[in-house]
Write a structure and sequence with these properties.
This protein is an all-beta fold. The protein has two domains: 157 residues, Sandwich (Immunoglobulin-like), CATH 2.60.40; 33 residues, no CATH class. The chain is built from one helix and 17 strands. The strands form five sheets. Strands 1-4-12-9-10 form a five-stranded antiparallel beta sheet, with no helix packed on it. Strands 7, 8, 11, 13 and 14 form a five-stranded antiparallel beta sheet that branches. Strands 2-3-15 form a three-stranded mixed beta sheet, with no helix packed on it. The radius of gyration is 20 Å and the shape is globular.
Length: 201
């Protein structure tokens, strides 16, 4: 099995009110994938026996309710959007390969985004992002490794009915039970102003 890790670099904020990550459809997101092989694989085992590997590539798509695939688009230099094309990956043996894929968008928004009496809609729908390392062999595709995100709400815009800007600044950290905040944080002090006053971080 390969070593495989996916990081979301930008485009997702955690909403406490929704208990989910939020992505704006008009804003792009970016992921970085780290993958490596302990050896130099030449074949993949399939139901039809061993098949020679033609290439490795990364495939991204959204997923709703574990059965409906949601297309991912990629912005071009002229700002037009096209369906995301899988990215070829070279995996030298005994090395970790880093691949960053940016300017990505979900092709549609999640349903039932509107608030109900100021609270999240009980019928809110969610997407998950799937980032998969696949192999092409004998004109067929096989998934070697994949990671699926936590649930994501994709909105067309960010009107004031959702959350204040201050909430969007908080994100889940990479470590368990950690939180990331872009800006000053006051400890035992409500209005951090500068370092050394109220212990802002």
């Amino acid at each position: 099995m390969p070593t495989y890790r996916v990081d979301a670099d930008k485009g997702f904020n955690f909403s406490l009110a929704d208990d989910a990550f939020v992505c704006q459809k008009k804003n792009h997101f970016q992921v970085t994938v780290y993958c490596g092989m302990l050896g130099d694989p030449k074949y993949i085992k399939t139901s039809e026996g061993l098949q020679p590997i033609d290439c490795f590539y990364l495939k991204l798509n959204g997923l709703e309710a574990m059965n409906q695939s949601i297309n991912v688009e990629q912005s071009q230099s002229d700002r037009s959007k096209r369906p995301f094309k899988p990215v070829l990956v070279t995996l030298p043996p005994e090395q970790v390969t880093k691949v960053t894929v940016g300017r990505l968008h979900f092709s549609e928004t999640t349903a039932n985004n509107m608030r109900k009496k100021g609270k999240p809609n009980p019928d809110q729908r969610y997407f998950m992002l799937v980032v998969a390392l696949q192999v092409q062999a004998h004109s067929q595709s096989f998934t070697v490794a994949a990671q699926v995100s936590e649930r994501i709400i994709v909105r067309a815009s960010n009107p004031g009915q959702f959350e204040s800007d201050s909430e969007v600044l908080w994100q889940r950290g990479q470590l368990p039970d950690s939180v990331y905040h872009h800006g000053r944080v006051g400890i035992s002090f409500y209005r951090p102003a500068r370092r050394g006053h109220g212990h802002p971080l």
